[in-house]
Amino acid sequence: MGADMLSRSFRVEESRARFWAQKAVELCSEIEDESLTEYIQPILDADKALERDRRIIFIGAAGSGKSALLAGIAECPLMARIPIEDDYVCWRYRSKDGDATCSRFIPHEELEGLELVDTRDCADERVAATVRTLLKGADVVVAVIDGRTPETSPIWPLIAELNEKQRAACLLAITYTDTLAAESTLKLKESLRDFCRERVGIPLPLYCVSPTSGTDSLGTFRDRIQSALGEPVGVRSAIRRLVEAAKELTRKQATVLGARDRVARTDSGFLAGIEQEIDYFLDRQRDRLNSCREAYAEAAMRALPTTVDKLQRTLGWFLSPVTLLRMELLGTGTEKFYYRTLRTEVLTQQESSDDNFMLSCMKHWASVRPRMKKTLECEIGEFPADELMRDLEEQRIRMGRELYKPFAKLQLRSTFNREFNAHVGWMSACCAAMCLFFFMAGILGLLDQMVPAMMALMVVALIWIGGSLAHYLTVRHLCREIVQLSLNLQEELKSSIGTAIEALLVSRVAAYRRLYTAPREKVARHDASLKPLQQKQKDINMQLNAAAPRM
Predict the structure, then answer these.
(1) pTM greater than the 0.90 cutoff
(2) Cis bond leading into 232, ω under 30°?
(3) pLDDT, tens digit, for every residue of 248-280?
(4) Coil, strand, or helix at residue 39?
């Protein structure tokens, strides 16, 4: 089929160029460099321009031979037999854009990628307006001129506008020259060339064509259309833009890989220097160990008065059955309250310390990032604050658990319980005596023995006063005992907190060091894959040079 030449002339070059341009884009993900991003979009735009069908449009007056010429070029007589019902008809193999308006389809895959547009009489103003719209997306315009009436052809205003916009290649096809003598045909060509200069402003390629015979054969005219597809916005031009955009990307890739190769040869100790900076960072953290230990010991001291006040409020100032009921659980409650108060104090200070540590890490990361970019051509990205914060939160939770170890080691709960339970006996006796005499006073009152009843109530009052005084002295004694026990706890806390703080300082610097794991792996991958990447870039560039359309 004649259309095979038209639809497939640049298909191999197009496929090859698109394939290697895609390979160049894929290589960017392996190189991993932000500077390559700006070079990718021109490739995508040029590749998209190649996806559309190529439009070859035939324009002319009624009876000028447009349909017969189109059918002869495509070697499909059906195109000339079917009348045009609308302003134009678009012959296609399939609809890529989903718009089948005025389209007719022929089951010949040789038409794949083409739109062969046949128009009605362009002398009709409505048709001319439609043609002007179609010309905006045309790649080749075949202006068909009846050789018998060339000056009256309606195509001249259309191709004049086309020339001003410089949108599509235009070929002049003169039909019915077989009815003229050879000398008349030559004179016609000369006059049309002059007329073209006058009406259009520039000379256009001019061919005498007939579907069956003529000065120029249909095969030769098909070759002219094939060449015209390449300029100015045709397939060859689009392929050239795609190849040039891809070659520009490969040149930038070569620059990035070259810089990376120089780094690998001249500055392999850069990451070791970063590790030394982090070690120095750890030493400064350890220098703060004593001050942190003292601060947390002071937190333990501040937690003690709060615990004593809580104990005094719980026991109250007077002896009562409620106090007696609380004594059995008071040891456990006192220990828990003391631990929670201490834990809140310590973790609040630790959270503030972690915030300062986070700021220091952010400043160090901000200083490392440009150096990493400049020296190793490796982008480490923004500071991963969320990841480090999660690590610090986990370390604070572990530290909170460590704070309970001194309480468990000194067995404060059982010690508190023994101290509190030692006073339960006399308190129970006082409460029982008060209940007994109060009951007796009630019985005597019912028997109208008011004097003995009042005496019984006075005994209850005396027992309560004496018990309350003893209760007050007991509370003071218990508070002194708690303070004394807390002295041992504080010594143990200093030792335990010191160990926990040192482990925490080391752990959080280790957490910051882990943030450099990904950059270290990235640099290692760069070094390991550098030679293969360089070779791949050279291969792609060589293939793109071979895929570039020849001038």
Answers:
(1) no
(2) yes
(3) 998 888 888 887 777 666 555 666 777 777 777
(4) helix
